[in-house]
Amino acid sequence: MVKNKKEGKLLFTTDYKKTYAQSDVIFIGVGTPENADGSANLNYVYTVAQQIAESVERDCLVVIKSTVPIGTNDKIEAFMKEHLINNVQIEVASNPEFLAQGTAVRDTLHASRIVIGVESENAKQILTSIYEPFKQPIVAMNRRSAEMVKYASNDFLALKISFVNDIANLCEKVGANIEDVTNGMSYDERIGNRFLNPGIGYGGSCFPKDTKALHWLAEEEGYILRTVKAAIDVNEKQKYALIKKARNDFPTFNEKKVAVLGLTFKPGTDDLREAPSIPNIRLLLNEGARIQAFDPVGIENYKKLFPDQIAYKHSIEEALEDADLCFIFTEWPEIKEMDLDLFKKQMKTPHIYDGRNCFSLCEIENKGINYHSIGRPSVVEFSVLDEVQA
Ligand code: UDX
């Protein structure tokens, strides 16, 4: 990509008018954040659509990559045609993207599929010729179906995670181990082995927003999307699964020194959108906990949310120092590979609540710690009575 820029094939500009005027194909990739009622906010898409309509000077294809509710491509096309200033032909096509945070370039170059939603042979040909060099399967359909593919894919993955979390919670009650259960399930190719990790719920800029947006859209159509609603409900509750466990040992967090390892919604990104750590930390702070937190890259962004209330630490050792308990909210490699002796060495009382199952139960044994994770039996190596006696 950088090479393309050096060769003059890639240009960054803020002069949108000139760029739109001269383009044959324009991709829209702006955000569609969540409105208060769960619907998608399309303000950015419409703003760009208007700017394009008022700038284009030649026939062009406008391609919407943003995740938009079903029917939006049709509406945007009509809207742009109304706002055209020059006598040109304009057409809209849908081309949802399936990138994940932190792996956008890899996901683009090695996409599982390119979905194009078109209403004409011309649009199909233009998009096919753009994507052919990527040598990935190109799946063409109409615009509404393409818009739906994006929501249905994200919501299906969210549902998969919520299902595993639901089963994990049940595993705890019946004495099963979710790791063994998902491993046993994954040999069935119809189920697969990905997106079966239990935890404290999905976060990020897509799953929470896209599940709510599709549910909202279905309701508008007079239909209740029960499965997606279930995924949303399970996820809301799951965010607090860990703190619920800690309550068994700590009736109050007031004045407790709490170590937090991992703040971002997943490893590999400094993105905090819908990070499960946020509602948990809010709850802990409200109860008077004293938090010392470590995250390899998320601290600067976290400071914007909680400037003074948290003691930010630049190493795991420092975050654990003298702590009464420790929460793990993100499975960063640094955390998964940490020296497990640090818990006992650094903490006042090594009560660990791991929301991402970072360690195997075998490696945790005989470390002198109490360890609680998601969907697996707890490892309890000291009793609260020992603590009092000590
Ligand atoms: C997601 C989709 O993967 C991507 O295809 C889409 O285009 C945008 O949304 P992203 O939000 O960046 O990407 O991250 P992803 O890796 O999918 O994880 C989302 C959330 O699910 C994270 O909070 C992660 O911790 C959680 N997750 C993921 C689980 O809890 N268990 C899993 O097995 C997988």
UniProtKB/TrEMBL annotation:
Keywords: NAD, Oxidoreductase. SUPFAM superfamilies: 6-phosphogluconate dehydrogenase C-terminal domain-like, NAD(P)-binding Rossmann-fold domains, UDP-glucose/GDP-mannose dehydrogenase C-terminal domain. It holds the Pfam family UDPG_MGDP_dh. The keyword rRNA-binding does not apply. The keyword ATP-binding does not apply. NAD(+) binds at T32, T67, K209, R273. Gene3D superfamilies: Cytochrome c1, transmembrane anchor, C-terminal, NAD(P)-binding Rossmann-like Domain. InterPro entries: 6-PGluconate_DH-like_C_sf, NAD(P)-bd_dom_sf, UDP-Glc/GDP-Man, UDP-Glc/GDP-Man_DH_C, UDP-Glc/GDP-Man_DH_C_sf, UDP-Glc/GDP-Man_DH_dimer, UDP-Glc/GDP-Man_DH_N, UDPglc_DH_bac. Its EC number is 1.1.1.22. Substrate binds at K150, F195, L196, N197, P198, G199, G203, K266. Residues 259-361 form the UDP-glucose/GDP-mannose dehydrogenase C-terminal domain. The active site is at C206. GO terms for biological process: polysaccharide biosynthetic process. Signal peptide: none annotated. It is an enzyme of class 1 (oxidoreductase). One of its GO terms (molecular function) is NAD binding. It catalyses: UDP-alpha-D-glucose + 2 NAD(+) + H2O = UDP-alpha-D-glucuronate + 2 NADH + 3 H(+). NCBIfam families: NDP-sugDHase. Belongs to the UDP-glucose/GDP-mannose dehydrogenase family. This is UDP-glucose 6-dehydrogenase. It comes from Heyndrickxia coagulans (Weizmannia coagulans).
